[in-house]
Amino acid sequence: MNILVTGGTGYIGSHTVVALLDSGHDVTILDNLNNSHLGALESISQLAGRRPLFYLSDLCNLDNLNLIFDHGHFDAVIHFAGLKAVGESVSEPLKYYENNLIGTLNLLHAIKSHNVKKLIFSSSATVYGAQPAEKFTEEMPTGINISNPYGWTKSMIEQILKDFAAAENTKSPDNPVEISLLRYFNPIGNHPSGLLGENPNGQPNNLMPIIMQVARGERSELTVFGDDYDTPDGTCVRDYIHVVDLADGHLKALEYLKPGVNTYNLGSGQGTSVLELIHTFEEVSGKTLPYKIGNRRPGDLAGFYANPEKAKRELHWQTKLTVKDAMRDTLKFLELSTNKTANNNSAQPVEPNPPERQK
Ligand code: WQD
């Protein structure tokens, strides 16, 4: 299939593009490089042995988006593009609502006007908000007690997609839209080659990139946000999923798309605490990771993880890689990206307008 991947040079997007190319699909990437680098495009091409088309563009530019769709003749869209820093979304809500919602609405206009019927949306376990249970199933209510605007944009987009699909499939039951909402838990790790990895611009919020900063010596120590939770070792428990497993989940979701909107939790189904993650890093690296126990972070839940049974049953997908595998691959990425000159920042692109196809 010919697939448009929005946000395809980002952390999860780039790993998914490699998996799509390896599976024989043709891929076009649309990305504004707000939180990624052109270097990812080179790594993708090197790993896949062929180069996806790349448009430096923004979903908020509907004219450019329509031009890309005019050229693209896409069979499906995988939609990653969006701002995703939880903390930043609290301090800059309008930026998040505008970018994530307007961008998605523009994408849906282009999808509709170009008769594209297959869409996979990068959602998040954040849409569950605070739940009485710790093992999350897709049937649980969402959009309640969400602690940040980022999570609200994911929840709102899920609703927009449900309403869009219901309307379209009522009008055209014989040519229905097929949408999958994939709710990620906590993606970590990177491609075993070490050529792709989590390389956010600006200050990371997530645990793994911060551990990497400490390991690189860019940060003196890790602050563990609280060790007085009701968990086995007092630190928060999360469902960490290797990004390569996550990318595979997208291929399976594409393969098993069905009319209407279907939702899947993509997680390992196992919980790992912050201290366990630190100790795994130390075991794999053979180095001590300096950390201190600090105050709780507002909005953090003690523990949650996926019930991945529905994805296993309907997508024939389950995680194969472990937290230890993720740590090993992270160290490989750390080693290569530390040794390599910062080629991620050397190629500063110029915004083509209208979008020019890069060969
Ligand atoms: C994990 C644990 C922190 C940093 C977020 C988003 C979610 C998804 C994944 C996009 C928590 C602890 C962290 C640090 C720490 N993103 N921690 N010290 O909050 O579970 O989920 O990222 O979809 O939407 O909400 O991930 O990596 O920020 O935190 O102790 O310096 O690590 O308290 O318990 P989180 P995280």
Describe the protein's architecture and organization.
With 359 residues, the chain is α/β, with parallel strands linked by helices. The protein has 11 helices and 15 strands. A 7-stranded parallel sheet has the order 3-2-1-4-5-7-12, with helices on both faces. It has a two-stranded parallel sheet with strand order 6-15. Strands 8-11 form a two-stranded parallel sheet. Helix 1 (11-22) crosses helix 8 and helix 5 packs parallel to helix 6 (149-171). The protein starts with a strand and ends in a 20-residue tail after the last helix. The model is unreliable at 341-354 (pLDDT under 50). The structure holds UDP-4-deoxy-4-formamido-beta-L-arabinopyranose. The site of UDP-4-deoxy-4-formamido-beta-L-arabinopyranose (WQD) has 19 residues, from helix 7 and strand 9. UDP-4-deoxy-4-formamido-beta-L-arabinopyranose is lined by residues 84, 86, 124, 126, 184, 186, 205-207, 210, 222-225, 236, 238, 274, 297, 300.
The strand count comes to: 15
What order do the helices and strands follow? Answer: EHEHEHEHHEEHEEHEEEHEEHEEHH
Query: Pairing-aware structural class of the strands and helices?
Result: alpha/beta
Main beta-sheet annotation: 7 strands, parallel
Q: Which hetero ligands occur in this complex? A: UDP-4-deoxy-4-formamido-beta-L-arabinopyranose
- DSSP helix count? 11
**Strand arrangement across the biggest beta sheet:** 3-2-1-4-5-7-12
Share of helical residues: 25-40%
What's the average pLDDT? 93
Give the amount of beta strand, in percent: 15-25%
Features:
7-stranded parallel sheet; 11 helices; 17% strand; binds UDP-4-deoxy-4-formamido-beta-L-arabinopyranose
